[in-house]
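Journal club prep — side note

Before the paper discussion, L.F. wants everyone to see what a predicted structure for a comparable chain looks like in token form. Sequence:
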Amino acid sequence: MSSSAFSPNAAGRFALLATSAKSLALIDRQRLLGSLQGVASWLETATDTARGLGVGHRVAVYLSDGRMNWMYPHGNSGEVISAWIELGEILERPEYQARALDYGAGLLDDPVTGLYRGEVREAHGLAWYWTDSGSYTCGYSMRMPVHFLRLYEKSGETRFLDICDVIGRTMLHRQTASGLVDASWSPRRGWQEGGTRVGCRYAYSLATFATLFKITGDAAYRQAYERAVEALLAMQNEDGSFYQHYEVATGEPSPNECSIKPFFFSYLFNAMMEAYEAMGDARLLGVAERLGGYLAGLYYYRRSIPYCLGETLLPTDRVEADTAVHDLANGLLWLYSLNGNAVFLDLGVQLWIDAWLSQAEMPEKPGWHGAILHGVNPALCVPVEGVPEDREHLQYDSTRIAKCTLWMIVNHLFATRRLLDLKPVTK
């Protein structure tokens, strides 16, 4: 199956189109810090409005009459821990470390809507799925150990270190012969909750195993990491992209569901960043460079990166397939820091600017201020058939004008940190 006409060396072919010097001239330190202050404001409101409900809201939906709705209080995104730590360090706000501790404690102290620790020990450490559908998934817990490790290093609280191995043991138990991990469980359906396919974002498990090997030195994690890397290498298409879904047992693309979801590529970049820091594995850079080349082809043609591509899309993807995503900036800037390819700097900077231009500056309106706003498809005039009820943020609503998601916010924050570290940004 061919996914695209773009060449694996697209980054080289598009080098002459890179305008990184011009783009960087639009950014100075004050602008970067102002954007981070907006991120902090949004995160504070997303967290505070969920007190008593969960650790923090995941989505904000904005309505034409000026009102807004917070959704999914059990966001359960480990990245928020590092987000608060980063904000505290950059903005010199030590109280943000307390917010990082609160978020991590919330995940551990609630064994029902945080990390599962019930009667079924084999499922311990799985994260409550944010849609509140009653299931637990490795797709979210696998991203947590690196952030819990950072919280342990900041706080000295050993429980943040101990939970990492709990998550890891469940993942070891659920790693299949293909190298992929199938770990979704619910009291109602047991392990059948995971189904027969995984999204390419599940390749994040290679980072989890790398971090756990770094923490424990346990050879089982090293072996699991190697199998996971082999899965990643096999999953990548010739043009550098990844299909959205793969059969968990074989690692082969799922029949009839061969869409490509660039929104998932930020998961892959983040995984390769984490694993590379732990293992220094050059194979990961090869994968990342090919993926970056594919994205160069997309961006220089469209001037944006779309949420999802393909002839046959799932109902949940059809709602926002053409939405421009900015969350890849962090990974592309990381790639530039390692190989110096100006194309990746240009892509990362332009995606950051796109996000910044979409960031609301409304300090008088908590919940709006700092939000990275994504509009709605004007062609969508009726509900899309087949969108699950628990995806309320995707249901058609004629009064909706925009939304903001936690994932976009935290990855914008991490990309901003990388730009602050670039030597040209010194004003």
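L.F.'s comment for the group: The chain has one domain: 10-421. Keep this in mind when we get to the figures.
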